[in-house]
Amino acid sequence: MSDRYQAVLLFGMPGAGKGTQGVLLSNIPGFFHMSTGDMFRTLDHHSEIGKTFDEYSSRGELVPDELTVKMWQQYVHAQTVLSLYKPHSDLLVLDGIPRTVEQTKLMNEHIDVRGIIHLVAANPEEMVTRLQKRAIEQKRADDAKIDVIRNRLEVYERETRPVLDQFDANLVHEVDAIGTPAEVLGGILRVLAPIQASAHNTVAQ
Ligand code: ADP
Q1: 186 — phi, psi (to 5°)?
Q2: What is the per-residue pLDDT across 83-122, written as a single tens digit (0 to 9) for each?
Q3: Ligand 1 atom 8, closest CA
Q4: 68 CB less than 6 Å from ligand 1?
Q5: 68 vs 124, higher pLDDT
Q6: Domain spans in the chain, listed from the N-terminal domain onward
Q7: What is the pLDDT at residue 24?
Q8: Any atom of ligand 1 within 6 Å of the Cβ of 63
């Protein structure tokens, strides 16, 4: 019996479609999606933490690890208090965290990772095009400049990709990120549906 949150990770380079898929999954009973990018973007831009976020994200850099994990903990706790996330019956779908090896270590005592969806694209340049399209659609400053996009992809390779090596290879499932949202969702659900079913059976009652 574990009192850690039963979680799955949505993993992949910026633009791979984690956010789109997370929202689709959150419409299915028993999945609770949380994105740290969304969490940071809802902050008041005049607050200290909001300013810190703007400072890092506008350069395509990551927010410092301790601060990120602390905010994540408070955010998850708030969702449980509001009964939006029910740890005993929902599978937590984490999008955008852990994003560094250090975050992985800090989160280890809080989450029990049941599986990792690694969204992969044969042609990473396709991700750059997606990000530029998103910049126009969602008015996101970090997507607008090509050098910021390139920096985020470099940060991903250098700091985030090594997170995968922290987990048992059996937990990592590659899913093709290219296709319609429905096609990609199909690939993800083939992996997550059985994990969700078994997590319900083993989560502490
Ligand atoms: P993307 O996946 O397209 O890079 P996100 O919406 O996930 O975009 O994140 C936007 C920004 O929020 C990141 O560039 C980073 O500055 C910050 N951020 C999100 N998650 C984390 C995290 N786990 N650790 C540090 N910074 C983060």
Answers
A1: -55, -45
A2: 999 999 999 999 999 999 999 999 999 999 999 999 999 8
A3: 37
A4: yes
A5: 68
A6: 5-204
A7: 97
A8: yes
Contact 30, 122 (CB under 8 A): no
| Residue located nearest, by CA, to atom 5 of ligand 1 | 37
Helix (H/G/I), strand (E/B), else coil: 95: strand
Residue nearest to atom 2 of ligand 1 (CA): 14
Cα dihedral 129, 132, 137, 138 in deg (nearest 10)? 130
Distance 154 CA to ligand 1 centre (A): 13
From the CB of 37, is ligand 1 less than 6 Å away? yes
- Which residues in 139-159 are b (16+ Cβ under 10 Å) and which e? eeebbeeeebbeebbebbeeb
Its CATH architecture, for the domain 5-204, is: 3-Layer(aba) Sandwich (3.40)
In whole angstroms, what is the distance from residue 85 CA to residue 59 CA?
32
